[in-house]
Design a protein that fits this description.
This protein is mostly helical and 123 residues long. It has one domain. It contains three helices and four strands. The chain has helices at 45-64, 68-72, 89-115, and strands spanning 20-22, 37-39, 74-76, 86-88.
Length: 123
Amino acid sequence: MLDYYLSVPPPQDFVSPLPFHFATEKDALPEGVIGDIVPNRIYSSSELLAYLKASREKYHQLLANMREENLLERWVENSEAQEPMDYPVLEILLYNLRHLQHHTAQLNLLLRQNHGLAPGWIA
């Protein structure tokens, strides 16, 4: 979902380069899955690195072309949800960065617990 929140305006028919699905209460979550977004398969290291590279480039392009007035525009998710997301673009970008930090911390926790190591800070 990293690239979804880098799409301004949000796409009506978003398709992730790394396919996933949202688990429902009926679904049996695979062991070790954190959260309700479940990958459709295990991705290779090269697929993950390519996705991160593409997302980083998308973020850089977005920021390079961003103007102050664009940051104040509304990022409105056209969703069937009762309360679709409706925030300024700046807030969505900050939300996305915090969300990325959160999941990075989860991965670091799992690496420490299961392997006794975790990567250092990456800028």
